[in-house]
Amino acid sequence: MIKNSILLLLTACLLLPLSGKAQGCEEAAGSDEALKVFGFLQAEYDQQFTDETSSSFSFRRARLGATGNIPYDFSYYVLMEMSPMLSSNGSAYLLDAFITYNRWDWAKISMGSFKNPFSMDLGGTACSGLHTIFRSRAVDQLVVPQRDLGIMVLGGDRNTFFQYRLAYLNGAGLKKDNNSSKDVVARAIFHPFEFLYVGGSYRLGYPTNDDDKRTSYAVEAEFKHGPFRAMAEYIVDEGEYDRSLGGGCGGELIALGDERKGAYVQAMYMTKWNVEPVFKYEFFDAGINDYREDVMTFGANYFFNDWTRLQVNYLYRAEDPSEINNDGLYVQLQVKF
Questions:
Q1: CA distance 166 to 188
Q2: Separation of alpha carbons 96 and 154, rounded Å
Q3: How confident is the prediction along the chain (337 residues), in pLDDT tens digits per residue?
């Protein structure tokens, strides 16, 4: 009954007259911009408190892109990942590249490679807009692949009563499809009050072949009141999976059981000194060998200006049934241009 209600809700959203933007890492160009070059750098220092403490400097992300509008009713978006830390051979590679038909505000159509719209933490949050350095563990492990090739219909934004995204994807990530079946991914968000957003995501996929099915569900909520903001999401994933599709930015994938789940809740408060304390609690249940992770993130963000931000996160990690020494301190400096 719950599954059928979610599907009915997501389908109904497609009939509503809404406006929307495509799912890139940054906002697309304005209506009058023929060409906009953009990018951001995230330089990072990590210290790992393992059995033998280690530390290193690296790039979390280093991205350069272009977006613009073409007469009439078309726009484009291209984004390259330049960080050698995220490439198997240390070379830059194409991350996002899609064309959008903008004729109808209630049903814009994007085709190409773009972010998977599933989840508030992934599909609803820009890479440079994360409140903590890491996405949630459940998203990195379960929302795979995080980028894909396909077509998407979308409408609405944060100012409308509804938003929706409906995507028809290869399901194989940024490479050639491995079967003839396609993944269907949908996300809908309601904005009933100025201070509240609620919504959910759904995925039906075929990660390995035309017969092995994978289904995923998520519910989300966001609360805003003045300088205070809180966000929460719960994800359930079941069925077949393909670990070769990769995870989040630099994430290490682990073995999963038949049904796995995870959730997070985070809160932040923007002070008058441009300092934003952040606390995040999350858990991830792999659904195999009783393995579970609980992670608490204690952090602070300092905004030098609209383009430059410093993030400091301490992650306390606890595993069950056997805990591992793997806490970490992470410092990231981001600049957008």
A1: 9
A2: 17
A3: 444 443 433 333 333 333 334 567 776 666 667 899 999 999 999 999 998 889 999 999 999 999 999 988 999 999 999 887 776 667 889 999 999 999 998 999 999 999 999 999 999 999 999 999 999 999 999 999 999 999 999 999 999 999 999 999 999 998 888 889 999 999 999 999 999 999 999 999 999 888 899 999 999 999 999 999 999 999 999 999 988 877 666 567 889 999 999 999 999 999 999 999 999 999 999 999 999 999 999 999 999 999 999 999 999 999 999 999 999 999 999 999 9
Residue 178, both tokens: 């491995």
Helices (H), the chain: 2-13, 137-142
Q: Give me the phi and psi of 177, to 5 degrees please.
A: -60, 145
β-partners of residue 186 are: 166, 202
Tell me if 188 sits within 8 A of 223, measured CB to CB.
Answer: no
Token couple for 188: 């809908």
Nearest to 124 by CA among 94, 151, 81, 157: 157
Amino acid at 131: H
d(CA 131, CA 161): 24
Q: What's the longest Cα–Cα distance across the chain?
A: 60
Identify the residue whose tokens are 């953009």.
38
Burial classification of residue 219, based on how many CB atoms lie within 10 Å of its CB (0-12 exposed, 13-18 middle, 19 or more buried): middle
Single-letter amino acid code for the residue at 166: L
